[in-house]
Every structure is written in structure tokens, then in C-alpha cells.
Amino acid sequence: MSESKRSNSIEDGEAPLESIIDDAIARSEDGRVSMRALLKAWNDRSYGPLFILLGFVGGTPLAVVPGAAAIVGVFITILALQMALGLNHPWLPEIALKQSVSEEKLREVRKKMDKPLRFLDHLITERWRWAAGEAMRRAAAIFVAALGVLMIPFDAVPFAVAAPAWTVVLFGVAITARDGFVMMLALLGCLGVGFLGMRAF
């Protein structure tokens, strides 16, 4: 599919969450979408969707296996440190870049998630640019790295790991949509995680 046919591009600032999947589908080659193509499609916002995905995995029953959320936290930390260092795209090993998903599956996900994504996209937009600029994104990367590290000990406390994991999701949304308001909510989430950590440990 040519780029001219892409709609609601993530770069347009409209419907950023829907555009994560739309841009992925637009990068399909021979019916499959590779991780390399996704990073290219998402450009300098690449970290946002990855934080959303990993935070979601770490904060839901998908990570029910003991130690799984801690492993996710390590990956989050590695990615966040790359962002803090100013890498435009996260470095991933070649084996990861070659991983792909079928366009058909992505379209199925897009269809199933249409209503919730549309609802969420009505709530987020590019705003409070002072809180979503380059300097703040670098600072956010440091906070995300810390949250990733905290997911390791939090994984030992039942349900506690959801707090840092979902805060990572908030940062991911803020980075993807360049929404300064959500960025502030994520920073507040960090305070909550810190309070929970002091109570738990």
C-alpha cells in the first residue's frame, strides 16, 4: 500500500492511537509487517508505541508467569535508556527487526479495537507543548527507565507491578500523541508508584 493512501497518519497528530495500527498496516509488504517497517513508520515516536505495548503486557494477566513482568521491565529500561541518550529510533537486534505479523491479523485487531481506540483518541491530542517537547521527552525516558527497574521488585508483590507498568503506558501515550497533559498525568503516576514502593518495601 502506498504512503499516499495512508490515513490518520501518526505524524498528523490526529487519532494517534488508531494511527499506530493504521501506519503499521500501511507498511505491509507481501501481506506481512516487519518490526523494521514499524519503526520506520512511527519515526521519532517509535518509543511511544513500544512503551504502550510493553507496559500493557507487564500490567495485565499476560504477564501472569512469575518473573515475566520483571523481564518486561528490563526491556522497558533498555529502550528508555536509548531514548534518554537521544537515539531517534530504538536499536534492536537484527533478529527482532525481522520479526513480522500478518496484515490480516493487524486488520482484525484494528476492527476489534476500533471503538475503544476512537474513544481514547477523543481524549488525547497535541497540547501543552511545553510539557511534551524534546527536553521533557528526555526526562520522561529517565522516569520510564526507573519504572522499568522498579517492575523487577514489584513483580514479587501480587498486583503491585500494575502500577509502574500502567504508568509506562501513560508515558507511551504522551510520547506517541505528544500530549503534555497526559505527560503530567504520567509524572503524577510516578509519585504514586514511589509512594506504593515505600509502603510495600
Number of strands: 2
Distance between the termini: 52 Å
Strand content: under 5%
Low-confidence stretches: 1-8
Sketch the topology as an H/E string, one letter per element. HEHHHHEHHHHH
What is the averaged pLDDT score?
Answer: 84
Number of helix segments? 10
Overall, the morphology is globular
Task: List its traits.
201 residues; mainly alpha; 3% strand; disordered N terminus
Provide a short characterization of the protein structure.
Helices cover 65% and strands 3% of the residues. The chain has helices at residues 16-26, 35-42, 47-59, 68-84, 94-97, 103-112, 114-123, 134-154, 162-177, 180-200, and strands at residues 32-34, 100-102.
What can you tell me about this protein's structure?
- The protein is mainly alpha-helical and 201 residues long.
- Helices cover 65% and strands 3% of the residues.
- The chain has helices at 16-26, 35-42, 47-59, 68-84, 94-97, 103-112, 114-123, 134-154, 162-177, 180-200; strands at 32-34, 100-102.
- Strands 1-2 form a two-stranded antiparallel sheet.
- Helix 1 packs antiparallel against helix 6 (103-112), helix 3 runs antiparallel to helix 9 and helix 8 runs antiparallel to helix 9.
- Residues 1-8 have low confidence and may be disordered.
